[in-house]
UniProtKB/TrEMBL annotation:
One of its GO terms (biological process) is teichoic acid biosynthetic process. GO terms for cellular component: cytoplasm. Its EC number is 2.7.7.39. Keywords: Nucleotidyltransferase, Transferase. It comes from the Bacteria. One of its GO terms (molecular function) is metal ion binding. It is an enzyme of class 2 (transferase). Pfam families: CTP_transf_like. InterPro entries: Archaeal_FAD_synthase (IPR050385), Cyt_trans-like (IPR004821), G3P_cytidylTrfase (IPR006409), Rossmann-like_a/b/a_fold (IPR014729). Residues 5-124 form the Cytidyltransferase-like domain. This is Glycerol-3-phosphate cytidylyltransferase.
Length: 132
């Protein structure tokens, strides 16, 4: 079984998120999503509309997602790759190069994000704010 992992906040779930998850799942047989906890989002200075449990329920309802785990901090990725015997680590292309240190443990892939949609864009359009 080929295992794939990706990370994110997945707030205000939208088409771009679904596309990223679909494409990540196509790279393997089992997709793990590490979802930023509310505490970790505070450390990253991110504000989510939905709390962790709500975001987790939404992700678990998506057919491409096999397992949702909590991401509690920056240093967790290497441990997760080992713990879950990950074959492929996937992130959006805006993180290009940031996780190349994992290449000795698994394949690292940066997927191009879906154009024309982002959580930041939605928040700006809905709330008129510069929200992370």
């Amino acid at each position: 079984m080929k295992r794939v992992i990706t990370y994110g906040t997945y707030d205000l779930l939208h088409y771009g998120h679904i596309e990223l998850l679909r494409r990540a799942r196509e790279m393997g047989d089992y997709l793990i999503v590490a979802l930023s906890s509310d505490e970790f989002n505070r450390i990253k200075d991110k504000k989510s509309y939905y709390n962790f449990e709500q975001r987790k329920v939404m992700l678990e309802a998506i057919r491409y997602v096999d397992l949702v785990i909590a991401e509690e901090g920056w240093g967790q990725k290497e441990k997760d790759v080992e713990r879950f015997e990950v074959d492929t680590f996937v992130m959006g292309h805006d993180w290009e190069g940031e996780f190349d240190f994992l290449k000795d443990k698994c394949d690292v892939v940066y997927l191009k994000r879906t154009e024309g949609i982002s959580t930041t864009q939605i928040k700006k359009e809905l709330y008129g704010e510069d929200a992370n």
